[in-house]
Design brief:
The structure is a homodimer.
Chain A lengths: L3 E3 L2 E2 L2 H4 L3 E4 L7 E3 L4 E10 L7 E9 L7 E2 L1 E4 L5 E5 L5 E6 L11 E4 L5 E4 L4 E2 L3 E2 L3 E9 L10 E4 L5 E3 L7
Parallel strand pairs in A: 1-17, 2-11
Antiparallel strand pairs in A: 3-12, 4-5, 6-15, 7-17, 8-16, 9-12, 9-15, 10-11, 10-13, 10-14
């Protein structure tokens, strides 16, 4: 099979809407709070982690640069919960996704690159690659913890070893 | 009544534990994820926003410097939900709290200052002052939205106008 090469596109709300929400203030409406000393960009993302006795938790993830070349050899998803990643240090990262329906065909996979301030919230069941940071960075994560011993009921994985996708990031500016 | 003056203390887990959780990676345990390319500081805070058909949402709040001198004239609380604030730009901010029980007496109020990277998650019902940033900064917020028209069932406020508390921040290093 021919090698698949995918060039990440800039992450925009329109393109990302089938996969989840973008967490950013740029271009969004806000209203004043705290006696006018602050503004709130409200409800940028919904945390949906309570199914099957789940709880939403806040964690921190620190990253090392993902080694080049970047080949997408698997995707994962959480069928019954959302999962958000927000950079705590300004950093561009790659987002590789496929829609939640059934098993994603390789040609249906899409790749995006954030602008350094954008965070994302994967919708329930969205196929995604583990966090692809290209530098040492720190992310806030909001996701689900289920009751023991069913930790695995909210995790599925698909192998793409038969036709891995190479990300072409030379022109991406990271 | 004599004026109350309160000097904020550095925010530590021990001192803050009656009021909520500190969201930071420093000094915490982590485990490897993503094929060893990242580490997860797991479950630093629990999001507890589902009572009474509530939903947890992710928002962004941008701040202006709170005008000096800083006088604490009111506190608020959310009786049935947690509320988290995490700085997206490194910034020290002030945290003024009182325990959830009944109406806080002014002498029971405590003030802390963060180290610039720390976030916080107020426990259910913890009395707290609205976000006290001393610079233009950006925070991620994880809190509850209730179903209309009961927006106010998760909000209480107490006035301290009769004995406002002045924060002594000269020695705080902000």
């Amino acid at each position: 099979m021919k090698d698949l090469i995918l060039a990440p596109k800039p992450l925009t709300r329109g393109d990302f809407s089938p996969f989840g929400e973008i967490i950013e203030s740029a271009g969004r409406d806000a209203f004043p709070i705290n006696f006018g000393h602050a503004r709130r960009f409200h409800r940028l993302a919904l945390v949906d982690c309570q199914a099957e006795q789940g709880e939403a938790v806040i964690s921190i993830v620190t990253t090392k640069p993902w080694p080049a070349p970047i080949a997408i050899r698997m995707l994962e998803r959480h069928p019954i919960s959302t999962q958000a990643f927000i950079p705590l240090t300004e950093t561009r990262f790659l987002v590789v996704v496929a829609e939640r329906y059934s098993k994603p065909r390789p040609e249906k996979i899409q790749a995006f690159v954030t602008n350094g301030r954008q965070g994302i919230n994967y919708g329930r069941g969205t196929w995604h690659h583990p966090l692809l940071a290209l530098s040492e960075a720190t992310f806030l994560v909001v996701d689900r913890v289920g009751p023991a011993p069913d930790f695995d009921q909210d995790y599925e994985e698909i192998s793409l070893e038969e036709s891995p996708i190479t990300l072409a990031i030379d022109g991406v500016g990271i």
